Amino acid sequence: MKSRRLIPALAALALAGCMQPGEDAGQAGDPNRYTIAGDLSAVCESGEFALWTADGRNIVEGARIVDGRIFLEGVVDAPANAFLEILNATSREGYRLASIKGHAFVLEPGELTLTMDSRTEFVVQGGRYNDIVVNSWRLSPEYLRVRDDYLRADRPVDGETSADRLARETAAAELFDEMLRLESQGRRRVALGHADPLARKLTIQSTWLRSPWITDALRQLAEMIPHDPWVAESLALEEAYAAEQARAASFGVGSEIREFEAETLDGEIVSVSGAREGKDVVLLEFWASWCGPCRVEIPHMKEAYARYGPLGFEILSFTVDDLREDWVEASEEEDLPWINAGMGIDHPATEAYGVTGVPANFLVEAASGRILARNLRGRKLDEALAERFDTPEGES
Questions:
Q1: pTM of the complete model
Q2: Radius of gyration of the chain measured on its C-alpha atoms
Q3: Which domains, from first to last, does the chain contain?
Q4: pLDDT tens across 76-93, in order?
Q5: What are the CA-CA distances from residue 158 to residues 161, 164, 165, 171, 297 (Å)?
Q6: Which residues 6+ apart lie within 8 Å of 200 measured at CB?
Q7: Where is 4: in which H helix or E strand?
Q8: 23 burial class (0-12, 13-18, 19+ CB within 10 angstroms)?
Q9: What is the pLDDT of residues 118-138, one digit of tens each?
């Protein structure tokens, strides 16, 4: 499974305020005017709608959802990657809903439409760059087919056996990886092949998948727009990342474990050496609240932990989340039973293990402190633990 990480979005964007319907926008005929009309009635009746750009600046905060619909208008000086979130929402049945975060889209002049289905999947349509950067792959028949298969596989089945559940969860993880592959393939096609440098730039800025083509895409973009400061800075970061990856590659199976200390949500200081005490093997798991593949794997890891924990299997997880509230929320949602420490991508823990993307893990022999395997997921983790714990004595 490939590593993923967020790519910094440092675009210089000049975005003006947004208005609710009925306010005097004063921008009829403004070539930079945009509107967003949305139907969210499949999920919510009322609530608040937040919109912000990829550099983290809020554009709209607390826009109202009325009868399941929203309408925003404003001006945007240049197309910019943006994100959506629904807060404090209530369903038609009167139930309070958790916050719902949407995928990135391109905010640009023109008319955009927003829809959300019962599975809380956002779709933003309209806008030349939005269609190129996002919808060219996200609305493709192949991606939609795999996504639907994943959503079916990810849904629990009443009365299923443990074996059936494991098979379903493994299939869901494989389908999720296929969705990521199709997304990366679609973004790569734009970032390396589109004639418009802005389309390429917006694609790279919104790409959260760590993929080898990004460096090549930035090098080509630097030739197309050589004086763009974001491109120059991002290319330097990518080349530094490549050097770090080369260093991390030398730290693999057979290498001796590297010590670090971290803090749990309860404020307890934990360490690698502490996790090893009295155990046979320890899985060092690097994850994040926003990492889909990490979250998909957790139910399977819980099952392995319940089976092999009493036999000497320990897990020390470390989150690269930068915001404590994100770590807290994800930990409560997942109800992690193992050592749960953090936090941050720049923590000594991630530096010690050369982790620049998640998911990433290391299976460690507790007694020797040697790495037995890296990046074990699904059946590979099962096989490694079964070989360690289920093999009768005297067999190798």
A1: 0.65
A2: 23
A3: 8-126 (2.60.40), 129-250 (no CATH), 261-389 (3.40.30.10)
A4: 888 999 988 888 999 888
A5: 9, 11, 10, 17, 20
A6: 190, 191, 192, 194, 217, 220, 221, 224
A7: none
A8: exposed
A9: 777 889 999 999 999 999 999
